[in-house]
């Protein structure tokens, strides 16, 4: 099981530039079925062994692809997302960083009636250990197991996964939802997927300053989650009014502070790691049976 | 990106939003000339800096003659303004905006922003103009009116009527609010703003609506399609190091501690600051070297960190995904050779090519303290900084 992707996932790559090609190859080496790439005007050719199509629709028709990873540059990324939805893709993972908010707001609204799930943008993607890698995560640090990991950040996801793996605790799926103000899949969506997944027995959730996604997730945990959830919130010492790398990581108008998020999570029964070095150990305390 | 009030008013005017007449001045003489040209009995001389709260700090003066405008400008120009929104060192005033005075009957608040929870635009209005809106929201939330605009539907007139009648405007006032809000919304969308705030929006004695102050922020990610807006950037208003970092595509935020940080990824970079605090230290900066970090970028990042004289130790924390630790290590070695790093250096490499990277550092002969875990990295960096201070 796991969430979102597994060994049967058939992946195409939208945007076969340097990054797209590089990660298509890494995903294939990991065992992911990378069945095609989309590069308008280059249909019929092959790039490093990957068959290329002019449109996503064409790629879906000829390869049976059900997932797409998007490396298209910001000005064309929202268009790429909508093209994937139009072509009947089930899961689109958008890696692109720097898409204007207006473009994403419109695209997200247009996706409301679509069957497609969007992950990201500005995210590292999703890995189901030993089955499927979509995006840019260093999959070698993951190992199969019972813990679902969901995070707004990339490298901090790796840090959490690494801590779990070193403690001998594997992961069902590891998901980066992205650091932008508008993202396709939020914490609540991811928590619901993990709650429904029989292979997931606990969840690690990594938030950061900005917005109120963690507070909303806390409410969801309280009323809907039966599995233990542990969390960390990055940016406890971030100054107000400064954008901390991610477009969405900013304390604005007194809102989006880490302290408020931590308080909301703790009030919902979520064990929050005191320091980023204690994410793994916090999970062991919350779900000791998983560490055996 | 932020712009000045005078620039914001230029944009508002271009989108049909009523603003008082005004002129920019950089000398007292220009201010006098501007006041003469305006020809009104009252003029307002306003400091142009990227910060709110100017009035209380002495950056806004109401005067009644061109001679007094000159005097006010000479007081304000060159002063260092301290408001709740300025950095601790304050902001130097380099220009003033000389504006025609208005007969104010009522002060309202109006803003457009993006509501992240609703994923829609929000138009926020209040009868409590001229106040800090966060305070109004906290103390009298019933005085805040909000309508949400769906991104693919756009602004509808009923939404403006709802705000107008909610604000208690006369029928005539509501009628005048329609083009006013329409102009603001068109500007917001056309220029990819992230916030447009009119505080106060005044109703004059004659019943006209005027944007007395205007604050506009833009979505940095959309500046590529607005060269006209990008040109409004005032480098003088930006932190020198943040500006330098921006030019080499690094995300950098200066802080007031003594441990310089170089990290890849925004989340891990924030977490590294948290780790340092947890271990009893204080970070000197946030620095996300990004996914494209290579030897050259590492060198640039070191240069930037070392510009800060408070730095007594540097912590490099890299979790390689896209980033290769061996390239980072080469960058560290190159930077140490070229820049002569004067402070203790703690380096933690994990992930892609970490073994190779550690080997490069170990064989370099440089005095580098390696760290294995995040905890260890934090502790070693804090200890190193304390050692440096002793």
- Let me know the number of strands of chain B: 18
Work out the oligomeric state of the chains in this entry: heterodimer
**Which regions of chain B have little confidence, pLDDT < 50, spanning 5+ residues?**
none
Label the overall shape of chain A: globular
**Average predicted local confidence, pLDDT of chain A:** 94
Principal-axes geometry of chain B comes out as elongated
Q: State the major sheet of chain A.
A: 7 strands, mixed
Short description:
The complex is a heterodimer of chains A (292) and B (390). With 292 residues, chain A is an alpha/beta fold. In chain A, 33% of the residues lie in helices and 22% in strands.
What does this molecule look like?
The complex is a heterodimer of chains A (292) and B (390). Chain A has 292 residues and is of the alpha/beta class. Helices cover 33% and strands 22% of the residues of chain A. Chain A is built from nine helices and 14 strands. In chain A, helix 7 (213-224) links the parallel strand 12 (202-208) and strand 13. Chain B is α+β, with helices and mostly antiparallel strands. Chain B is built from 13 helices and 18 strands. In chain B, strand 7 and strand 8 form a beta hairpin. Chain B is elongated, with a radius of gyration of 26 Å. The interface between A and B is large, with 62 and 54 residues.
Give the SSE layout:
The complex is a heterodimer of chains A (292) and B (390).
Chain A: E1 10-14, H1 18-29, E2 33-38, E3 46-47, E4 50-53, H2 56-63, E5 67-70, H3 74-86, E6 91-94, H4 101-110, E7 117-119, E8 125-128, E9 132-135, E10 144-151, H5 155-166, E11 171-176, H6 187-196, E12 202-208, H7 213-224, E13 229-234, H8 258-267, E14 271-272, H9 279-286
Parallel strand pairs in A: 1-2, 1-5, 2-4, 5-6, 6-7, 10-11, 10-12, 12-13, 13-14
Antiparallel strand pairs in A: 3-4, 8-9, 8-11
Helix pairs in contact in A: 3-4, 5-9, 6-7, 7-8
Chain B: H1 5-14, E1 22-25, H2 28-38, E2 43-47, E3 60-63, H3 66-76, E4 80-81, E5 91-92, E6 96-100, E7 104-115, E8 120-126, H4 133-139, E9 144-149, H5 157-166, H6 171-190, E10 193-204, E11 209-211, E12 215-218, H7 227-230, H8 240-247, E13 251-254, E14 259-263, H9 266-278, E15 285-288, H10 295-307, E16 313-320, H11 325-339, E17 345-351, H12 354-363, E18 368-371, H13 374-389
Parallel strand pairs in B: 14-16, 16-17, 17-18
Antiparallel strand pairs in B: 1-6, 2-3, 2-6, 4-5, 7-8, 7-10, 8-9, 10-11, 10-12, 13-15
Helix pairs in contact in B: 2-3, 5-6, 9-13, 10-11, 11-12
């Amino acid at each position: 099981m796991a969430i979102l992707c597994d060994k049967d996932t058939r992946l195409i790559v939208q945007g076969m530039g340097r990054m797209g090609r590089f990660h298509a190859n890494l995903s294939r080496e990991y065992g992911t079925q990378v069945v095609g790439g989309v590069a308008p005007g280059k249909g019929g050719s092959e790039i490093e062994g990957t068959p290329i199509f002019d449109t996503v629709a064409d790629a879906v028709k000829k390869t049976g692809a059900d997932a797409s990873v998007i490396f298209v540059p910001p000005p064309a990324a929202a268009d790429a997302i909508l093209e994937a939805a139009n072509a009947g893709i089930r899961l689109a993972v958008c890696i692109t960083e720097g898409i204007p908010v207006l473009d994403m707001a419109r695209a997200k609204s247009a996706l409301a009636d679509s069957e497609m799930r969007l992950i990201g943008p500005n995210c590292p993607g999703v890995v189901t250990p030993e089955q499927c890698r979509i995006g840019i995560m260093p999959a070698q640090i993951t190992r199969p197991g019972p813990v679902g990991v969901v995070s707004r950040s990339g490298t901090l996801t790796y840090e959490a996964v690494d801590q779990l793996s070193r403690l001998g605790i594997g992961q069902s799926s590891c998901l980066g939802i992205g650091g932008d103000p508008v993202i396709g899949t939020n914490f609540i969506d991811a928590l619901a997927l993990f709650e429904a997944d029989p292979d997931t027995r606990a969840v690690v959730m990594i938030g950061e300053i900005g917005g109120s996604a963690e507070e909303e997730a806390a409410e969801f945990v309280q009323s809907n989650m039966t599995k233990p959830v542990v969390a960390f919130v990055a940016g406890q010492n971030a100054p107000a009014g400064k954008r901390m790398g991610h477009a969405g990581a900013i304390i604005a108008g007194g809102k989006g502070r880490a302290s408020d998020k931590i308080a909301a999570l703790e009030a919902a029964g979520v064990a929050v790691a005191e320091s980023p070095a204690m994410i793994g150990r916090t999970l062991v305390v919350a779900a000791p049976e998983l560490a055996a | 990106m932020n712009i000045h009030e005078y620039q914001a008013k230029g944009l508002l005017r271009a989108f049909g939003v009523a603003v008082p007449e005004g002129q920019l001045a950089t000398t007292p003489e220009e201010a006098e000339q501007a006041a003469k040209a305006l020809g009104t009995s009252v003029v307002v001389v306003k400091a142009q800096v990227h910060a709110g709260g100017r009035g209380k700090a002495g950056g806004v003066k109401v005067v009644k003659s061109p001679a007094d405008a000159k005097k006010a400008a000479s007081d304000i120009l060159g002063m260092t303004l301290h408001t709740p929104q300025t950095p601790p060192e304050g902001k130097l005033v380099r220009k003033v905006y000389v504006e025609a005075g208005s007969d104010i009957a009522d002060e309202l608040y109006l803003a457009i922003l993006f509501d992240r929870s609703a994923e829609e635009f929000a138009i926020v209005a209040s009868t409590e103009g001229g106040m800090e809106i966060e305070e109004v929201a906290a103390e009298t939330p019933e005085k805040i009116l909000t309508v949400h605009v769906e991104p693919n539907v756009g602004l509808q007139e009923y939404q403006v009527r709802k705000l107008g009648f909610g604000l208690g405007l006369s029928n005539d006032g509501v009628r005048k609010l329609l083009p006013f809000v329409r102009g603001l919304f068109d500007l917001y969308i056309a220029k990819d703003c992230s916030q447009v705030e009119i505080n106060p929006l005044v109703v004059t004695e004659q019943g006209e609506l005027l944007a007395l102050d205007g604050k506009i922020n833009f979505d940095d990610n959309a500046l590529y399609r607005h060269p006209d807006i990008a040109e409004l950037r005032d480098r003088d208003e930006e932190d020198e190091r943040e500006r330098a970092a921006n030019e080499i595509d690094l995300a950098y935020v200066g802080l007031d501690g003594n441990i310089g940080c170089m990290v890849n990824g925004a989340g891990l970079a924030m977490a590294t600051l948290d780790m340092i605090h947890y271990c009893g230290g204080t970070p000197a900066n946030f620095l996300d070297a990004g996914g494209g970090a290579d030897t050259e970028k590492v060198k640039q990042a070191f240069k930037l960190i070392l510009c800060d004289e408070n730095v007594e130790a540097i912590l490099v924390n890299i979790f390689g995904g896209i980033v290769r630790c061996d390239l980072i290590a080469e960058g560290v070695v190159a930077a140490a050779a070229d820049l002569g790093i004067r402070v203790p250096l703690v380096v933690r490499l994990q992930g892609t090519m970490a073994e190779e990277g550690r080997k490069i550092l170990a064989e370099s002969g440089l005095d580098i303290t390696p760290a294995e875990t995040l905890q260890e990295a934090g502790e070693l960096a804090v200890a190193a900084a304390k050692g440096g201070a002793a």
